[in-house]
Amino acid sequence: MKTITHRRIKISLSAIAFACSLSLSGCANTQKTSVDDVVASPSFAMPSYQSVTLDNGLNVKLMVQKEVPLVTIDAVVRAGAVNDVTSGMAYITSQSLMLGAAGQAKADIEQQLDFIGASIDTTADLEGSYIRANMMSKDVDTVLDIFSHVLRQPDFDSTEFDKLKQREIVGLSQQKESPRAVIGRYFNKLVFGEHPYANPVSGNSDTIAKLTVAELRAFHKGYYQPSNMTINVVGDFDVADMTVKLNKAFGDWQATETVIQPDLSQNLPTLTKPRVLLVDKPDAIETTFLIGGLGIRYDNPDYVGLTVVNTILGGRFTSWLNDELRVNAGLTYGARSGFDPYAQSGVFKISTFTKLSTTKEAIDLALKTYARLWEKGIDQATLDSAKAYVKGQFPPKYETSGQLAGLLSDMYLYGFNDDFINQFQAKVDGLTLAETQRLIKQYFPQQNLQFVLIGNADKIAEVAAQYGEVTKVDITATGFGQ
Amino acid sequence: MTIGLLSAPTVSATQAEDINSFTLDNGMKIMVLEDSSIPNANMYIFWKVGSRNEVPGITGISHFFEHMMFNGSKKFGPKMFDRTMEAAGGANNAYTTEDMTVYTDWFPANGLKTIFDLEADRIANLDINPVMVESERGVVQSERTTGLENSNWRTIQEALKSVAFAAHPYSWSVIGYESDIAAWTLEDLQQYHKTYYAPNNALVVITGDVKLAEVKALANQYFAPIPAQAPPKAVRTIEPEQKGERRVFVKKESVSTPNIMLAYHVPATSHADYYALDLLASMLSEGNSSRFYQALVDKQLAVAAETYMPMSFDPNLFYVLGVANAGVSAETLEQALIEQINLIATQGVTQQELEKVKNIKLMDFYRTMETINGKANTLGTYELYFGDYTKLFNAPEAYNQVTPADIQRVAQTYLIKANRTVGVLAATEESDK
């Protein structure tokens, strides 16, 4: 909301913004607290759903949620920026699905969807491409028809494609006006180098300009196949009825070629020295920075435990990082940390921002606070608090049809099952102090930290040089540090 | 309770009659919606104080005060509000607008009593710590700076409001001026708490896995003893009628293509024209079939074009923001935006176009009602801006009543040149000719 300022903002410095989207938004060393009358946490379980195999072998999941008369249909394709031959390919393909389909023009599709208040949104990230339809229950037939055309028979109209590319290129320049919107892309490039996990989902202005309709068609044909995707439906519908509709839309769809996926476990980087990427934005009035390194895979058995430990370091308001940099020092509006897991690797990042003159002070305090993990470790009261916090804040993450559909999509993409939800609480409860020490030693990067600083390079170059080998790039230069 | 596994869900869309409300003797109104879809609950406390209640010298103090409400009270000293809440599984935030300050607590339902205890103590016994005030100044300066660094909207809106409003306190941004953030005193803050943080100036909304009887008992135990205060003075200033276009230019070197913001004076949310203006905003900017998308984005003049009309106690602004495509001048984009707005005034809209945005509004309504937080926030918002939360449930019908003639009339009445302020944000300002 635009005129609103929040006490704290939820920002993801690694979020891939929809190119061309315009956001008008404006959002511890704990002593034991006595909380009376707290009983055991109420249990939260995976809502029931049906797994249905369509006539062509495509497995779909159907989850009924009747709170409001809405339906969300998600298709997730196992193809993302890691599959890019030309940078930005997966993302631009996802955007191009909506440029007309099965002979129906882009404007006609948009008019038809808008008229019933429905929407189909497409995007991609590192490892997936996503097509999401939202509609009122009464409009499922109309929307599903368009949805299947968009997914199976995109026209990739060349005139519309040229216009899209041009807008996306301009959109990239605009994203670089906001350090927060792009800093994650610089960080991944710095950490992963030549590995596909370094690929910026958005592509860059040069590579997008080069993309052709022929490449789009090849990418679509190669990856958008029933053997390489799944569909999840969540909302207010009848399961038998929806199964019939899905069979009608997709039951005759056959895979035509073998999908080839890169082996992402190969050639992962080894970080051998601390490095600093200094991104120059001459009119910057603050320095935005990330510090971190390699993280964990999605299927890591310690994922839940690390969530709890990171909650203490930088995952909530009273976390060490936020308490030191914001509450005690007044250096920033917010400081946080987190693991971003991928299928075969991941990153860990500390993120914050501060005014130019306190760049060094903020970086040093972030590092000093981070070092507490090894120097002091966690005490029982803090661990108990963090456990209560992550359990208490868990259910609202899976409340809406959209959230639940997203969960089912991630289950497909990253290979986890209902236990992720159903075992969450038990795993949190089972985490011991001794375990936290093991997790800290094993997973949090301590040596050879990687830094990205976006700010006024003339003013902060000397500061940057204190943390590692510096590479300087101009924020307006093509790409994200390559 | 466990969801989903015990029984098939039944249709449970919230109705107006599901809302229970009661008022304590001290004037504090409390609304309760029982909803056991997840084992969580929330408490939203709306205070009728925002930047409209400020004066020059203390601009931004409503928002700063919002921060101070977390920094220590009699029972829970500095940092203990957050530590206690998080240890009980709860999280919180707050937001400040031109009209109100809203505190949001989200917690496992069994933490309800703790939340009441925490909230009651900071309402009744806030203890403003001078050391915390100083560190919080740095926090809010950083919040201000990071907004300007990362958001063109923030940058241009701050300048535009100061030109669009000559008299009314909507003239400054909610976060306030840098010099005021640095300068207000402990006495200013203490006075603010005493004036505005009285139970009779608040609305409490609780939704989630709670029982009305339990909420009533806790409200009586924790909130009822807090004494009422004399109501705050009304905001008296009425913005004089604008009688000609105003303009403002802001230079920001890293802006890659010009941004244009237009703002037209419109009535308060409680005015009958609110629904027609809101639908008009959607026609201009919502979805790829919208007029702005079709005429500007699809024609490669703009990469984005949006509208925004905040809910508001006093007459406020109807905003339009466009971001130019490469090679498109500020002037060309400005004219293209204005042309689309003027087309509605001169040629009107079709019934079909109106049906479309009504459906979009209905969809938005359902989305809002999908979460306990959406329900709490929206119920409180409607109660305060429309004077009655039941208007939320009547909203689809109120939108339905709007006719194409209404849309054309509000465009002709409000979206006119003499009532417009134009803001331009660009990397370079044109030199004098």
From TrEMBL, chain A:
The keyword Lipoprotein does not apply. Residues 1-28 form the signal peptide. GO terms for molecular function: metal ion binding. Residues 69-202 form the Peptidase M16 N-terminal domain. Keywords: Signal. Residues 210-388 form the Peptidase M16 C-terminal domain. Pfam families: Peptidase_M16 (PF00675), Peptidase_M16_C (PF05193). This is Insulinase family protein. It comes from Shewanella polaris. The lineage of its organism: Bacteria, Pseudomonadati, Pseudomonadota, Gammaproteobacteria, Alteromonadales.
